[in-house]
């Protein structure tokens, strides 16, 4: 379970650009939920993910993980339980290192690095097997530098790396946005498979309404730092792209766009 309780967040406080994004914002994700988050530009989706992961502190309020307060827990400590994949396939992997080195590094997340060898050759057969499951031919490219991979290959690798350690939560920040439609579909199917197989609790920010309708068991729409729509269960199963669009239009009319 992840919870943001009575969150207040101001950007540029005390300046002419001061902006209150969250004012008494509450958001709880129950264990096993796969929440798709949609919303207008600047509605606070990424900021919400940053608060969960600890990349940003709230001005007021509390963040809980499995009922325990983590507001003061540093990002690197929280990431022991959280895997995160970003929009930019270049983030989340190291371009100058090979696939093998990247996988070895991901497996060491949260552990102390010493002067031991960077890669464990004994793990190569398992790495090959994991990569083969992606169906992108990466199992034969273990010695290839990640920087030369395509965006889709790199995003698939990022996804795999984000769940190599036993994480409980997966945070996806528009992770298919930079990919062509076919590759995005492949990554989305892979994401869904990983979430189900590993029984992860997931929050996925997306601008793709088809993915928001098709995947996950809960759908949240954000607008101006608030959740203006929150559906789950049977209602979520029945939701269509047109219904989400209709709500978007309602919001746009309300704020005069
Ligand atoms: N570091 C920052 N400093 C100042 N303002 C910020 C900062 N980060 C975000 N904001 C502002 O907060 C608001 C919410 O931004 P955020 O990136 O969370 O929105 P978003 O819903 O993810 O948007 P998008 O869909 O465009 O990615 C925006 O108005 C943005 O300009």
UniProtKB/TrEMBL annotation:
It comes from the Bacteria. It is found in: Cell membrane. Residues 2-249 form the ABC transporter domain. One of its GO terms (molecular function) is ATP hydrolysis activity. The keyword Magnesium does not apply. Signal peptide: none annotated. One of its GO terms (cellular component) is plasma membrane. Gene3D superfamilies: P-loop containing nucleotide triphosphate hydrolases. It is a peripheral membrane protein. Keywords: ATP-binding, Cell membrane, Membrane, Nucleotide-binding, Transport. This is ABC transporter ATP-binding protein. It comes from Blautia argi. The lineage of its organism: Bacteria, Bacillati, Bacillota, Clostridia, Lachnospirales.
